[in-house]
Amino acid sequence: MSAPTTTPTTNVHDSRDQQLSGWNATLLVAEREILTQVRSKSFLVSNAITLLLIVGGIILASVIGSNSDPGRVAVVGTPPAALEQAEDLEIVESGDQQAAESQLRAEEVEAVIVADDSELGYRVIALSEEPTDVVNALAVRPDVELLDPASASEGLRSLIAIAFGLVFMMATIGSGMMIMQNTIQEKQSRIVEILLAAVPARALLGGKILGNSVIGVASAIAMAAAAALGLLVTGQGELLSMISAPLIWFVVFFVFGFVLVASVFAAGASLVSRQEDAGSVMTPAMMMVMIPYFGAVFFADNPVVMTILSYVPFSAPVAMPVRMFLGEAQWWEPMLALGLLAACTVGVVAIAARIYTGSLLRTGSRVKVSEALGRK
Length: 376
Fold this sequence. Notes:
Elements: H1 14-17, H2 22-38, H3 41-66, E1 71-76, H4 81-84, E2 89-94, H5 97-105, E3 111-115, E4 122-125, H6 132-138, H7 154-188, H8 191-198, H9 201-233, H10 237-269, H11 278-298, H12 303-309, H13 316-325, H14 333-359, H15 369-374
Parallel strand pairs: 1-2, 1-3
Antiparallel strand pairs: 3-4
């Protein structure tokens, strides 16, 4: 009779004992996330194209604006002194009024100025409507003193709101989708089981958020630097000086806002095990990214709505810097909004960590949030 075969037992705590400490594990995962993206050709190419588009767009807009054709004005006799000083109007000398009117009817000029015996000494002839630019050039304008030179025009308000909103949306969606894709892929391939043998679940989540936050903040800073370079190259230093302080606050708000959104992306991804199911858990995170952008774009000229949005945690990273640029925020408002955002971020991260650890090892159908929160 043969002796019974014994199977060596494995201590179930061995893998746990070999796990790295929380902070070291978090840094290790963060380093892995950063290197994975930095070594990706698609990441490098897409960011390079984005930066080139920012700089090129600013330069192109400046060139188009400076090279726009001036309006042509036919003058019979001596042109008014005010008209000669207008940089956006080209004076075309005409021998007589009949020839000048022929040019006007042929739309070769937009107006005709003829000397007469009136108090001004001349009159303006147009074809079908009043030539506003010519009249404005001839008008006597008094010196204007601006008490608040930092105030922005309506067009500039919308431009700054779109710029801040677009940077926040592009950076958070790009990194957030990367977190979601990697998390689901690790679950689907069951690599996560190997990772959890060496890294605690909370450290895995923290590393993903930290690594992608570094990438996201670096991308936002690079976009801001590209915009600053474009403004300097095109000689728009005044606008750059106006936007510098709000831009610094934007980066500070961006850090907390990005962590908040990234936590939602990671928690949502841990609930599913297939890439095909990602859409069902992506909506909350996408809404938190899209609302600040569209809110800032559509309500940039509404101080009440912008004030509300500047205190809502996930829209504050866009709305508050915009209000600061417009000079509509008191000195204490950014600090209060940042405090609310930081507190909300801490709470969301804690809930996301509970969902992440409670559903990461569960495969198959989608895990309910209540079930993930109920697991120890």
